[in-house]
């Protein structure tokens, strides 16, 4: 079995050049490859095209790279809650391509499956469809969207083994698995690294064949994006 472990995030991203196209896993603040992003910030890799569901927040995730002007183009679905992103977009410093969330996920999946393109009804009749091919199936219009081409996919999993098999937890499964399939080179950071055979085969979400490098990360913040709590019954009773 192929041993895919590297010693650190620094080693994992050492050959990512300026101008690369990166997929970065995560959904909101869940499942973000924090260690790899920190290593990219420290190396000051620039002129990057980043494909991610969201652009992080000002002091976390891709937001850290935005503050250092490392991102040339952002391809994403949700870009709220990031003042620096907004400033760069409005000033023309940052190129942005907004994509419906389902289309974003399916273009990642298509790349992983080796499909050149997908057809989707999302975006028909909007600015998203401008300049793109439209075909009709069973009397309904569909927009042709191309599969992504990413030089590297950088993902974060809960557990992984030295052969690259990955297990995610909860919301972090939203984009990490499809991106792990789609990169020409896939880098995985994990909270827990085990030996082959220690993961239940039925629980593996990303087979190791898709992963080229893996390492055990550290110092994960596990932030909560929006904390919403219900009033206790005693408080509700007193309020009434």
UniProtKB/TrEMBL annotation:
Stored InterPro entries: 3-oxoacid_CoA-transf_A, CoA_trans_fam_I, CoA_transf_BS, NagB/RpiA_transferase-like
GO molecular function terms listed in the Swiss-Prot or TrEMBL record: CoA-transferase activity
Residue ranges of the TM segments: none
Keyword annotations from UniProtKB, A to Z: Transferase
Entry-linked SUPFAM superfamilies: NagB/RpiA/CoA transferase-like
Protein family per UniProt: Belongs to the 3-oxoacid CoA-transferase subunit A family.
Protein name as annotated: Succinyl-CoA--3-ketoacid-CoA transferase
């Amino acid at each position: 079995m192929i041993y895919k472990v590297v010693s650190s995030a620094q080693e994992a991203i050492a050959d990512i050049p300026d101008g690369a196209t990166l997929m970065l896993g995560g959904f909101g603040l869940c499942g973000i490859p924090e260690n790899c992003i920190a290593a990219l910030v420290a190396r000051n890799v620039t002129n990057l095209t980043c494909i991610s569901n969201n652009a992080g927040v000002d002091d976390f995730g891709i937001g850290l790279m935005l503050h250092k002007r490392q991102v040339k183009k952002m391809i994403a679905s949700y870009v709220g809650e990031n003042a620096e992103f907004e400033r760069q977009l409005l000033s023309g410093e940052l190129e942005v391509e907004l994509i419906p969330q389902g289309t974003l996920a399916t273009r990642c999946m298509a790349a992983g499956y080796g499909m050149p393109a997908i057809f989707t009804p999302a975006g028909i009749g909007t600015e998203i469809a401008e300049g793109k091919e439209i075909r009709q199936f069973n009397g309904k219009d569909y927009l042709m969207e191309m599969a992504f081409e990413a030089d590297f996919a950088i993902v974060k999993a809960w557990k992984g083994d030295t052969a690259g098999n990955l297990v995610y937890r909860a919301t972090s499964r939203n984009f990490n698995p499809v991106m792990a399939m789609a990169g020409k080179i896939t880098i995985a950071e994990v909270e827990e690294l085990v030996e082959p055979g220690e993961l239940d085969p039925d629980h593996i979400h990303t087979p190791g064949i898709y992963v080229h490098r893996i390492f055990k990360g550290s110092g994960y913040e596990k932030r909560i994006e929006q904390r919403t709590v219900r009033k206790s019954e005693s408080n509700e009773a007193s309020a009434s």
